[in-house]
Amino acid sequence: MHHILTLTLAEPSDLPLMELEGPVRREGSERPTESELEARLAQLPPDKAQAIRARARPAPLRPDPEVGPPPPPPKFASWADFLDGTTAADRRRWCADKATTANGPRLMSGQPEHRIAPDDVLRVLEAAEGRCYYCGSLAVEKKPPGPWNRVGRRIGTLHHAEVRFLGGSNTPDNLVWACMWCSTWPLEEERRPGAVDRGGYFP
Ligand SMILES: [Zn+2]
Fold first, then answer.
1. Within a domain: residue 195?
2. Which of its termini does the chain have fewer beta carbons within 10 Å around, N or C?
3. What percent of the chain has pLDDT over 70?
4. Cα angle vertex 127, ends 122, 129, to 5°?
5. What is the pTM of this model?
6. Which domain holds residue 40?
């Protein structure tokens, strides 16, 4: 049985693997399975491997059930409303941040060969009109501080269709716009077209 591992890290400043691998993202799309992690660690010096292993722990294979009060209303009523409510410079800056993240090194896949330009990301966002590739929810909000899973389907993110640690490239043909929920949980039952849980919104 495969466990999905999540790499739980303290502040980046105290990462012993920073020099070796750079910062590590926590998002589920790049989570290695236990066997993938071990295969990668086998290539590292034992002390480095142990330091990384000590920071990895099994994560739930399924998200927790949705509980609590209803999520807040969407910040944008539609794609057109998003375009009205933001400037071209806002959107490009948002996409530039996503490009920076995508161009950074990852624990399991190192530094990507291909660097994504901010305009590549912007084209992905615009082609999708802000909708999640998987569930179709309008996903143009930023990740809020604190818990986000009540509105996970409204948070927009750049997603590698084939994830990087499995060999997916960093080229535009492997990029899709997705909501944070579908990007985090690569499960058929979570990536349901039209899903209205987790803040799913379909104007
Ligand atoms: Zn989605």
1. no
2. N
3. 76
4. 90
5. 0.73
6. 5-58
